[in-house]
Write a structure and sequence with these properties.
The complex is a heterodimer of chains A (172) and B (448). With 172 residues, chain A is mainly α. Chain A has 2 domains: 125 residues, Up-down Bundle (Four Helix Bundle (Hemerythrin (Met), subunit A)); 46 residues. Helices cover 77% and strands 0% of the residues of chain A. Chain A contains 6 helices and no strands. By secondary structure, chain B is an all-alpha fold. The N and C termini of chain B lie far apart (79 Å). Chain B is built from 16 helices and no strands. Chain B folds into 2 domains: 309 residues, no CATH class; 48 residues. Helix content of chain B is 64%, strand content 0%. The relative contact order of chain B is 0.11. Chain B is globular, with a radius of gyration of 24 Å. The longest helix of chain B is centred in the N-terminal third of the chain and has 38 residues. Classes of the chains: A mainly alpha (172), B mainly alpha (448). Chains A and B meet through helix 1, helix 2 and helix 3 of A and helix 2, helix 4, helix 5, helix 6 and helix 7 of B.
């Protein structure tokens, strides 16, 4: 019973914050609603006894992606009172696409996961050892490919930042 | 489940006779949070602020606060009353909601990270958290958002620069922070802080800081990275008082300002607690008596004795944490403050390669040298079931690890020689009044 209450609480936080991200006028407030949404998802992972995944969600999404987004938003927005209002046709198109997406997703997920139950309260968390063995055993190739992709991203970012510096300094 | 077991089960058994059902559990947990948890963290912050001012005073050859209370002990309470009754200012051009939200966003992660701190084997707020240390790292990385938000929402250039500097610094130092913790986790074999504490129960030589030649360096790397991540000590650029007015909390006054300060001092405690739990033996004494007697009483299921042992464990743990907090304050009032590019240089060009090499070395060490001594004297949940006593030579022979014994002895001899050399160098410098280098180089001629 407690798990059900907590599930509804975290699900409400996640969904309401997601709606808040889309509907908020001020973009920085949208980022804060995004934070609440990510924390709600981490709570849901905790309810599924995936503790490592929940902590990873907090580190990567909140401590990485969200900070990146906030930096981008804060360094490029011109003033605090930046409002973005959608106009007539945009609203119509957005509502139509959103309805189509929502109906198809609900139908597909409802068919597939019609009879799932919440994770039992007494189950132990998934041991991290098994996760590590899977990552370095069965899933070693995807693991290495992901690290190569991250390396490419880092090199690209460093190259882009350095190039711009040289241009602006003019051969100093 | 993280909320259903937020309370020490030993105390529950004492109060209710057995572990109670979920609803009573939740109510009991909420009561515990409202009283012990919040009051404890508040007390830690208050005493931390008082200790900081006293330590700062004595390092600067003056008394700290000594008028309010016996030795100035009530100074923090007086400060708290002042801050609460101060006028609550809010800049007119600041974003109303975000300006109010930022202190809470900065304080809440630190508040949540106290869940996993192992004060004693049974005195931890969440005892089923199998990813204890990762949880603390994850939730402390959320503190950056509160700082950035405070800097930006104040709509003032001092705050903005302070917030951006802080975010840059914290994010850069998260990498060496995480990598040095991984070195410790590799030496320990588990993320669970309770198991880590039990594992260090065999005496001083079982403390994880001696498990590896890379562990002392990992401890130092973590210490420096945690100072920067906590915007403490020489890395307090975000609140550099002489340059940025007050950095990201310039526009905050009264109770909101005190939230930032509480967050800082509570985070100091959390970071020192991680260092003690991971490297310095958690709640164990250097002789290993605690681990022995705890296992003894646990086998007998003697509740009263276990409670007393938990109390002793908590006292030992908090004592070690206080020593580390004192070292943090000592460093703050001794070292000057580097520039932001020097700080980032230290992170990316010094600490990051160092921790990567430590990680590589610790991984190779674990693979090549088997049968490491350092197991506790009694079986521990989550670790192999045999108890290993390194003082009994038969154990080395029966587990087939003579090679490890030889390597360990050689390394210990090298370490002892190195240590004696350093002591000799310092002693000679003190004795002669000049360093060895000064004795070997010619003195410069005095210009006419």
């Amino acid at each position: 019973m407690l798990e059900t209450i907590l599930f509804y609480l975290f699900a409400f936080i996640t969904v309401a914050s997601g709606v808040g991200v889309v509907m908020s006028r001020n973009i920085v407030r949208g980022c804060m609603m995004f934070l609440a949404s990510l924390v709600g998802v981490a709570g849901l992972y905790f309810l599924l006894h995936a503790e490592f995944l929940a902590a990873t969600q907090l580190v990567i999404y909140v401590g990485g992606t969200l900070i990146l987004i906030i930096f981008g938003v804060m360094l490029t927005s011109r003033s605090l009172a930046t409002h973005d209002e959608p106009h007539g046709r945009e609203v119509g198109a957005a509502v139509l696409i959103g309805l189509v997406l929502a109906v198809s997703l609900c139908w597909a997920i409802g068919r597939r996961f019609a009879d799932i139950r919440p994770a039992s309260g007494t189950a132990e968390g998934y041991p991290t050892v098994v996760l590590g063995q899977a990552l370095t055993g069965d899933f070693l190739l995807p693991f290495e490919l992901v690290s190569v992709v991250l390396l490419v991203v880092m090199i690209g970012a460093a190259y882009l930042a350095k190039g711009r510096l040289h241009e602006s300094q003019g051969g100093a | 489940m993280i909320l259903a077991d937020i309370t020490p089960t030993l105390l529950q058994r004492l109060l209710f006779g057995a572990v109670p059902g979920p609803l009573v559990n939740v109510l009991y947990s909420l009561a515990l949070i409202a009283t012990v948890y919040t009051a404890g963290i508040g007390m830690i912050a208050l005493l931390g602020i008082y200790a900081e001012r006293k330590v700062a005073g004595h390092i600067q050859s003056r008394f700290g606060p000594n008028r309010v209370g016996p030795i100035g002990l009530l100074q923090s309470i007086a400060d708290g009353i002042k801050l609460i009754t101060k006028e609550d200012l809010r800049p007119a051009a600041a974003d109303r909601v975000l300006f109010v939200l930022a202190p809470y966003l900065a304080f809440a992660p630190v508040f949540a990270s106290f869940l996993a701190i192992p004060f004693a084997p049974d005195a931890v707020f969440e005892s089923h958290l199998s990813v204890g240390i990762f949880w603390i790292l994850a939730i402390l990385s959320m503190e950056v958002i509160g700082i950035i938000l405070a800097g930006w929402a104040s709509n003032s250039k001092w705050s903005l620069y302070g917030g951006m500097r802080q975010a840059c610094q914290m994010v850069c130092f998260e990498i060496p922070l995480g990598l040095s913790i991984i070195v410790g986790v590799m030496a320990a074999g588990t993320l669970d802080l309770i198991v880590l504490g039990h594992r260090q129960g065999g005496g001083l030589h079982t403390w994880l800081i001696f498990a590896n030649p890379f562990m002392p360096l990992a401890f130092l790397a973590y210490f420096v990275a945690s100072l920067a991540s906590n915007k403490r000590a020489p890395f307090d650029l975000p609140e550099s008082e002489s340059e940025l007015v007050a950095g990201y909390h310039t526009e905050y006054s009264g109770l909101r300002f005190s939230f930032f300060y509480f967050a800082e001092y509570a985070a100091m405690f959390v970071v020192a607690a991680i260092q003690v739990a991971m490297f310095l033996g958690a709640w164990n004494d250097p002789l290993g008596l605690f681990g022995f007697y705890y296992a003894h009483f646990k086998a007998q299921d003697n509740l009263a004795a276990l409670l007393i042992m938990n109390g002793i464990g908590m006292a030992i743990f908090i004592g070690k944490v206080m020593i580390l907090i004192f070292v943090q304050m000592w460093i703050r009032w001794t070292l000057p403050r580097p520039r932001i590019d020097q700080v980032l240089y230290a992170s990316i060009k010094v600490l990051l390669p160092m921790t990567c090499l430590l990680l590589l070395g610790a991984a190779l060490w674990g693979l090549m040298i088997s049968g490491m001594p350092g197991q506790p004297w009694s079986p521990v949940p989550g670790l192999p079931d045999q108890a290993f006593n390194p003082w009994r030579w038969g154990h080395w022979r029966t587990t087939g690890t003579v090679g490890a014994l030889v390597t360990q002895s050689v390394l210990a001899a090298m370490g002892a020689v190195f240590f004696l050399l350093i002591i000799g160098y310092i002693a000679r410098a003190w004795w002669t009044g000049r360093s060895v280098r000064q004795r070997l180089t010619e003195p410069e001629p005095i210009p006419d």
